[in-house]
Design goal:
5 helices, about 280 residues, 3-stranded antiparallel sheet, 2 domains, about 25% strand, about 40% helix, 6-stranded mixed sheet, alpha+beta, 13 strands, Immunoglobulin-like, single chain
Length: about 280
């Protein structure tokens, strides 16, 4: 039994790591990573899609060829602006520029144009402008516990669900621990993080259509139902434990920050659910 439990914990950690990694790299705020060649120079770079409102967003390209110059083409998203161009300045091997900081939830769209004589290379997001969102800083004493509770909540959720899949195991203690971790990380600290970053505690249903809040609510609800059925020792307890596991995996397969807060420049109001 001890050996079997050890294996289940290893599987739980592996599934949790995969789920967290996928949600991070697939989200709309993860940097766009680019490997390209211009002239005889090959380079790797990343272009940011999230930044804090305390400073301008840096746009840096490391490329040694002094004959290569660059422009940043940008505008505020949804503001009706014409495209503007910023010349990139060379500092040794780095071409650098920066986009003006915006208010919380404000977004800019941009691309980088590299030139080498008659040659030109456009760096963007698969043919579309890169969209970057600004957020207010979140104190580390709030953000770090939020992340820790969400990580361990996911691990416990994976372990509880895998245990139900492997046998008739569906312990009240594991489900309770899962709910406590997800509740503290998601339902308590999560809204506080969002309040600091975007000025609102909750932007999911019924107040808005933020996917992050809605999928968190669905995940916690699934585990609450599982706990109630398990305490009552009803025959559906194991099935609902497996369903809760599937809901949790589905939640983490949906990219983070989808349908999140977006500043409407025409009204000055922050909206959610805008797929931009």
């Amino acid at each position: 039994m001890l050996q079997k439990s050890w294996v289940l914990w290893v599987l739980a950690v592996m599934f949790a790591i995969f789920a967290m990694f996928w949600q991070k790299v697939s989200g709309p705020t993860y940097p766009v990573r680019i490997t390209e060649i211009i002239g005889e120079s090959e380079f790797n770079t990343k272009l940011l899609r999230s930044y804090e409102t305390t400073d301008d967003l840096p746009v840096n390209i490391t490329i040694a060829d002094n004959n290569i110059s660059g422009l940043v083409k940008w505008r505020r998203l949804g503001a009706g602006d014409d495209w503007a161009y910023l010349e990139m300045v060379r500092n040794a091997e780095i071409l650098t520029s920066s986009l003006p900081k915006q208010k919380s939830a404000g977004k800019v769209e941009y691309s980088v144009i590299l030139q080498n004589g008659d040659g030109k290379l456009v760096l963007d997001n698969q043919g579309l402008p890169i969209i970057a969102r600004f957020k207010d800083p979140v104190p580390s004493q709030i953000l770090i516990p939020h992340i820790i509770f969400m990580i361990f909540g996911l691990i416990w959720a994976m372990r509880t669900g895998i245990g139900a899949l492997a046998s008739s195991e569906f312990q009240v203690s594991k489900i309770t621990t899962t709910l406590i971790m997800l509740g503290l990380g998601g339902l308590i600290l999560g809204p506080i993080v969002q309040k600091f970053a975007f000025g609102a505690y909750w932007t999911g249903w019924p107040l808005g259509s933020d996917w992050t809040d809605n999928k968190l609510a669905a995940m916690v609800l699934a585990w609450i139902i599982t706990l109630i059925l398990t305490i009552k020792k009803q025959g559906l307890a194991r099935i609902f434990t497996i369903i809760a596991l599937m809901v949790t995996l589905t939640v983490y397969l949906i990219p983070h920050s989808m349908g999140g807060s977006t500043l409407d420049y025409s009204t000055g109001e922050t909206e959610t659910g805008m797929q931009k």
